[in-house]
Design goal:
Elements (H helix, E strand, L loop, with lengths): L76 H19 L89 E2 L5 E2 L55 H7 L2
Antiparallel strand pairs: 1-2
């Protein structure tokens, strides 16, 4: 009772008939977990991931289920074709420097079904508020993209080019951003556009080897994130939550005075 599982990775957990009254499961990943017969009276499940979770005979009286992420029915074939066509046109636009295709606007769409966008050229993608949980962006080019407010939890950005990206207010808990480029984007001869992660949630995210130079991180939550080998030179870390985070040795030495 009253246990705290906030942001815990609990995929596939077997919790049948467990007493979880008033437990805190905010943002917990319970994908494919078995919660059959659980007592979740008064539990806080706000923002929890319940894709594929079994809740047969579970008691949820008084539980906070706001913002939970559950299964999304596969889009209609016509909708799927429309979005795929938009993505292909955007890639042509990015690869041809605007001579062919046209930029895509995917604002607010649930794109979990896309799954794999690895190594795609998606420069300047417009997708604020989109749901991209678990999508694979490994090695993708997303320079200058607008991903503000997106659900990017457990997404993979290993080696991705994210220079100048706007991820303000995004959810990046448990995301893999190893070796990603999140430094500034040169948009004119002497003008740099810094990447933004201000007011984002990046708890337990992996930033090892990432380039975070000049990044705007004001008010973000990096609790328990791995920043041990990230380049944080000139990053704006005003009011950043770093409880339990792994920091570069030099940064830790400065922080400790």
């Amino acid at each position: 009772m009253q246990a705290d599982f906030s942001d815990a990775m609990m995929r596939g957990c077997r919790l049948t008939r467990a007493n979880l009254r008033q437990a805190r499961l905010t943002g917990a990943n319970l994908e494919n977990a078995d919660l059959s017969g659980c007592n979740l009276t008064g539990a806080d499940l706000a923002g929890a991931i319940l894709i594929g979770a079994k809740l047969d005979l579970a008691t949820t009286h008084g539980a906070d289920l706001s913002g939970i992420l559950t299964e999304r029915p596969q889009p209609e074939p016509s909708e799927r074709e429309r979005i795929e066509a938009m993505l292909k046109a955007h890639m042509r636009w990015a690869e041809s420097d605007g001579r062919e295709g046209k930029p895509a606007d995917l604002s607010g769409l649930d794109l979990r079904w896309v799954k794999d966008l690895s190594k795609r050229k998606l420069t300047a993608l417009i997708a604020p508020g989109a749901t991209l949980y678990g999508v694979d962006f490994t090695g993708a080019s997303l320079q200058g993209s607008n991903l503000s407010g997106c659900d990017l939890r457990s997404a993979r950005f290993t080696g991705a080019d994210l220079r100048g990206v706007n991820m303000s207010g995004a959810k990046l808990n448990h995301a893999d951003l190893r070796e990603s480029k999140l430094g500034p984007l040169l948009i004119a001869s002497e003008r740099l556009l810094p990447a933004r992660l201000d007011h984002a949630e990046a708890r337990y995210a992996d930033f090892r080897g990432a380039d975070l130079r000049r990044m705007r991180m004001t008010g973000s939550d990096f609790s328990c994130a791995n920043l041990s080998t990230a380049d944080l030179r000139d990053a704006d870390m005003t009011n950043v939550e770093l409880a339990g985070a792994k920091l570069p040795m030099k940064f830790a030495e400065v922080a400790l005075g």
